[in-house]
Write a structure and sequence with these properties.
It is a single chain. It is built from 6 helices and 10 strands; from the N terminus they run αβαβββββββααααββ. β9 and β10 form a beta hairpin. The chain binds a DNA duplex (16 and 16 nucleotides) through loops.
Length: about 290
DNA sequence: CTTTTCTCCTGTATGC
DNA sequence: TGCATACAGGAGAAAA
């Protein structure tokens, strides 16, 4: 479940291993992985081969390679890992992965880049960059808490106007991006707020503290290389992150709360699981 | 307009 | 043992 810390870990790997290299060839297998590139996979291949990778950037859970052609016309190769996507830097002679969907070979004949995705919720598309350097197709995605463009007071004002559960707001990528189910639960646990508390009934200071916890828990996770529960999330070298050992709420049902010892509970919410401490995060009345 | 629900996918775990 | 079902959930389309 790659969220901001996991995607940032991957972005750093791309910055180290791919930026500065010239793409010699691109191979896309099947129609699904490039389904959001409306002109089709052949168009994507034709427009990215023989370009140079000049940057690797990220907003929320989206990341993109900035590629430049010989006239220095720049475009974004926009990538999303979805649930199970991996970007792997592999020796050209490494055997194909079971769910290999795309491969980039480079003019230097060095390691190649591969997009592997078991569930294919992830994918790629080409996009134009706007004046701020953001791909046009993700203009609806709000800045994430690590960006200069992030305005926490503005996010607080938006959450203060929403008449729905606070966790929905945390997960809404048009409000604040990068937070998924894991870090939403961790931020809510740190803040002592139940997922279904109404966003507009929380105080602005409480919303501000919650967002600060969200940024801090993602900073902590980034320091551990992200969270891995299984082999589905790995960095570009195939290595797992270690933040799963530090999770206080997510996936911890039955384990004692690290603050008060009460067993962590699991509830169903928005067609997924929510984990919280019954004592530190009391459910709102009238539910 | 805002908010909610549905759908895409496949490997793993669990139940009968 | 074998088959059916639940579950993991990001994001966008569709519905309310």
């Amino acid at each position: 479940m790659p969220e901001l810390p996991e995607v940032e870990t991957v972005r750093r790997g791309l910055a180290e291993h791919v930026v500065g290299r010239r793409i010699a060839d691109v191979e896309i297998r099947g129609a699904r992985v490039a389904r959001r590139h409306l002109p089709g996979p052949d168009d994507l291949v034709a427009r990215t081969r023989h370009t140079s990778v000049v940057d690797a950037r990220r907003r929320g859970k989206y990341l993109w390679l900035v590629v430049a052609d010989d006239a220095d016309q720049r475009q974004a190769l926009l990538l999303h890992l979805g649930m199970s996507g991996q970007l792997l830097v592999q020796p050209p002679d490494a055997p194909d992965e079971r769910h290999l969907h795309a491969r980039w070979r480079f003019a230097d004949d060095g390691p190649e880049l591969r997009f592997v995705d078991q569930r294919t919720f992830g994918g790629m598309a080409l996009a134009d960059l706007d004046d701020a350097g953001i791909p046009e197709s993700i203009r609806h995605i709000a800045p994430d808490p690590f960006e200069g463009a992030y305005d926490q007071a503005a996010v607080v004002r938006r959450l203060k106007r929403r008449a729905s559960g606070i966790k929905r707001g945390l997960l809404d990528q048009t409000v604040v991006s990068g937070i998924g189910n894991i870090y939403a639960d961790e931020a809510l646990w740190r803040a002592g707020i139940h997922a279904e508390r109404r966003s507009d009934l929380l105080t602005k200071p409480a919303l501000d503290r919650l967002l600060t916890h969200a940024r801090e828990v993602m900073t902590d996770a980034l320091g551990q290389g992200g969270t891995s529960f299984d082999a589905l999330y790995v960095n570009v070298n195939g290595a797992s992150g270690y933040f799963d050992r530090s999770l206080a709420a997510y996936g911890q049902s039955g384990m004692p709360c690290r603050r008060c010892g009460t067993p962590i509970r699991r509830e169903h919410f928005m067609n997924r699981s929510s984990y919280s401490c019954p004592r530190c995060q009391p459910a709102p009345r009238g539910r």
